[in-house]
Amino acid sequence: MSKSSETPQTNPLREGLATRAVPQACTVVIFGATGDLTMRKLIPALYNIAADGELPPAMTVVGFARRPKTDEEFRKEQEEATRKFSRQTVRDEIWNGFAQSVFYHQSEFHDAAGYKSLAERLEKIDQERGTGGNRLFYLAVAPDQFEPILKNLKEAGLNKAREGSWARVIVEKPFGTDLASARELNRIVHQAFSEDQTYRIDHFLGKETAQNILVLRFANAIFEPIWNGRYVDYIQITAAETLGVEGRAGYYEGAGALRDMVQNHLLQLLCLVAMEPPTDLGADSIRDEKVKIVRSLRRMKQDEIAKNVVRGQYAEGAINGKPVPGYRSEKGVKPDSKTETFVALRVRVDDWRLADVPIYIRVGKRLPKSGTEISVHFKKAPPVLFNKEAVSLDQNVLVIRIQPDEGISLRMQAKMPGTSFRIEPVKMDFHYGTSFGKASPEAYERLLLDAMSGDATLFARRDEVEEAWAFIDPLEEAWVAKENQPGLFEYPAGSWGPEEADELLARDGRAWRRL
Ligand code: BG6
Predict the structure, then answer these.
(1) How far apart are alpha carbons 37 and 141 in whole angstroms?
(2) Which one has a higher pLDDT value, 362 or 486?
(3) Confidence of residue 5 (pLDDT cuts 50, 70, 90)
(4) pLDDT grade, residue 21 (50/70/90)?
């Protein structure tokens, strides 16, 4: 499905989609191999793909990190983590086979000699294990480590593959903190790898229901004709978490909810909901349509920001009945921190399809429930027949549940059984779990397989990332401006954010959906 210069092989059997690419045997080199992401997500994801029989048998993992450690010690450490974090229970016979393909390479990130020995080791792995010279470099490190790693990979000649093989790089977020830093990061990445070789992770795109948005919209003929401002009244996108900052203050203090979640994950979801049908399912055809949406987001002037964006920060409160501290009392957070842990926005997409449709986005930590969903609220039936009484009928709402309990539901009106004529809203509900009888893979499983297959559809392209920052930057700038600075409103942990977020919708005669 990729339009890159590399041609992915296709496997007509995989997932029933003839265009689906096949993962090729390769070595996955993980920089930051002893970090949290590797232990919680990457190795468990690779194990689960192996357990599902989807991993090419020769696939090999090389963990690259600073601390001295043997292959055996690294395997043991990863086994413990995988037993803890894996989606499926770890089976000894599968783990033992998988572990034989896991190796450790010790080096400082800035030490050229460590990359020379890595190159030699990868050659040897190719010969012994049949990985065909294919390399996938995963940068699971803080952005300030990107430059030395990429520079050294290039100097060791590892950024280029030999004839018939490939070399790719996966870059983790945060991808910059504003447009200028994102451009700088892109410049650094492209000194070693071309755009075709670069896979920028946005793990929300790997979530099953996020992928299903395009299927819902473009594999069903009934939705497309009504997916526009004539029929859609407004759209809401919510990503709520009960978790707080969870020991990540070092990163989060400099990020905040807008940079951490909206610039990437939520704008990506918005693109999938708002984009036009692509000409084909190629990675670039889909990303071409998505980037048009980011470009069409109406830029807000300074005086419009306070009217359309509400920032909040959690104060002490309770989650599931248990008291929790306020953000400013969390470890590593400044006592007078101005970082937002909640943000609500009203945005507009200035294109033909959704020109008159407000889109409300809300994201927050320490909210009463965890859940991510998109809801499309359709215009009411005309005020005649059943809808002409004093109490008007509810709107039809299509809810796309990204997590948990992935699925899609449609709210509509039905007559209550009985002799009286009472109309009540009811739900048609599709749940992945019950309809397909199997659990959805984790986002990282899908994304790793795609990168091994050369399918960049679910990865953010350079222009998407930069355009998203161009939209976000003025909002961030307004919050640090000297004059007319919009407020930062407190909300008790365990509440649905500051009252001002409710007022944002109340002014339009609307309310947030309860999850
Ligand atoms: C990450 C953010 O990208 O996404 C976190 O940095 C957030 O702050 C997380 O908690 C949410 O992802 P998920 O998959 O747990 O919903």
Answers:
(1) 9
(2) 362
(3) very low
(4) low
Q: Does the annotation mark 431 as catalytic?
A: no
* Overall residue count recorded for the chain in this entry: 515
The three-state secondary structure class of 256 is helix
CATH 3.30.360.10 range(s) for the chain read 205-378+460-506
Catalytic residue among 203, 265, 377, 431: 265
User: Of ligand 1's atoms, which has the minimum distance to the CA of residue 372?
Assistant: 16
Mutation choice for ligand 1 from 36, 241, 444, 515, CB with most ligand atoms inside 8 A: 241
205-378+460-506: CATH, from 3.30.70.920, 3.30.530.20, 3.40.50.11540, 3.30.360.10:
3.30.360.10
406 lines ligand 1 (CB under 6 A): no
| Residues 44-52, mean pLDDT to the nearest whole number | 96
pLDDT in tens, 146-185: 999 999 999 999 999 999 999 999 999 889 999 999 999 9
Name the token pair of 507: 């002014």
Using the mean position of ligand 1's atoms as its centre, give its distance from the Cα of residue 13 in Å.
32
The answer regarding whether domain 3-172 maps to CATH 3.40.50.720 reads: yes
pLDDT of residue 4: 41
* Residue 363: strand pairing partners: 239, 343
For residues 398 and 382, what is the distance between their CA atoms, to the nearest angstrom?
19
Q: What is the DSSP string of 187-245?
A: HHHHHHS-GGGEEE--GGGGSHHHHHHHHHHHS-TTTGGGSSTTTEEEEEEEEE-S---
> Is any atom of ligand 1 closer than 6 Å to the C-beta of 260?
yes
Q: Atom 15 of ligand 1 has which residue's CA nearest to it?
A: 241
